[in-house]
Specification:
Length: 167
Amino acid sequence: IAEGSCYPYLGELKYLQFSSTALRRLFFKIEDGFLVCYKPNETGADALFSAMFFSQLKVFYKNEAVIYLKNRLEMWSGITGLAPLKLTFRANQTRWGSCSSRRHISLNWKIICQSSKLIDYVIVHELCHLQHLNHSRDFWELVESFFPAYKEVEKILQKQERLGRFL
């Protein structure tokens, strides 16, 4: 944990800055292109600060992801005419999203580290599963109708699958 460390957020590396706060809790914000860690004036031992830092960093990323992903899903639902009955957020190790036969979509909140284009692809992919619960030719044609460059984006996403592993 050092000022100037980089953390991925929406496909960009954000440099970490520290700022003091009179509040008794540590929290994060994105400000002027930086990831700012507001830490209490009286921060305890290094081990305690480290635990607080990563705990609150995870909370920050998850909260940001839920807001962003809900908004993007709502936008793409309007475009595609496909909407899930339920949306949940998980922190899967190997999947960015999934769709069940009950029309439930689950998104990996750690995808907030990826670019908006990659996030949009995952959302479109899962929405298209609401119509085709498989990877048939019809499914891929539907994905392509909303996201013509899906093949290139999918390759990039596979290469960057470890981007959110620090969370």
